[in-house]
Amino acid sequence: MAQRLWLNELRAQSTRNGQGVSPIEDHDLADKNLNPEMNILGKDVLLAIEALPEAQRMTVILVYVDGLSYKEAAEVLEIPVGTVMSRLAVARKTIATHFNDHESQKDE
User: Fold this and answer.
1) Assigned architecture for domain 2-21+34-107
2) Which of 30, 97, 101, 105 has the fewest CB atoms below 10 angstroms from its CB?
3) Can you give the pLDDT at residue 20?
4) Domain ranges of the chain
């Protein structure tokens, strides 16, 4: 899941930079075989996204999952582009904190 989010971000960046959508086949993936750890990580990422406030969750889904540009997401949500950027920044920080806290609990 994290890999897919990363690939969606690459495609979104290409679109935002005016280069259009790049097919997934154009990206070299280190390991195309899913393993149980990746499935667990994917589930954890989804749970972290679901735990976000609705405004942040919708913005994350539109940009990172659906691959919309910041401008397109702003139009769909009827908010300024700066608000999209802010929501994404806060969402990334929240998800990172979630995983950092989760790792700390494992170590205890």
Assistant:
1) Orthogonal Bundle (1.10)
2) 30
3) 47
4) 2-21+34-107
